[in-house]
Amino acid sequence: MIAFVRGQVAAVTLSSAVLEVGGVGLELMCTPGTLATLRPGHTATLPTSMVVREDSLTLFGFGDEDEKQVFELVQTASGVGPKVAQAITAVLAPDDLRRAIASDDVKTLTRVPGIGQKGAQRIILELKDRIGAPTGGRPATAASTESWREQVHQGLMGLGWTTRDAEKAVDAVAPEAGSSPDVGALLRAALRTLSKA
Q: Is 0.85 surpassed by the pTM of this model?
């Protein structure tokens, strides 16, 4: 098992990042929020989870250890594979997921692509006693007004959106920023506005 990867970011694509470790480029499948924090040429350390299938070995990278644990836990629910688990971590922060499960909030879970009404109810039923209470973890990333705008804009462009679409999405989520913006949450909100357009 590979617990984490530390290396220079060689490339960032729409769904993954390549980190050079000891002369080998490791591709890590990541959420848009994690990809937005990575810059080619900079060193990064990402907690990882390896999913072994008969025909593939896939390495998933995460912004923090909590996100990794949630990714691994939700896969223990019936019908949740790594793709749906990654979609869950992309749309919901770990504490948002814990709150949704604790309060039987099916509507929040169905915002995740690939999870319908029955799937959400099954996840709640199977994980309610195991996921724990919200930890208050992942404090909002303190970023200046201009800094968060630039990070979200770069994240969207790194995911293949045009400059114009990225600017519109950043403007659309600006009211949600507040005094201490959470870049990951704002990027997720921007992606939601673009998917509706």
A: no
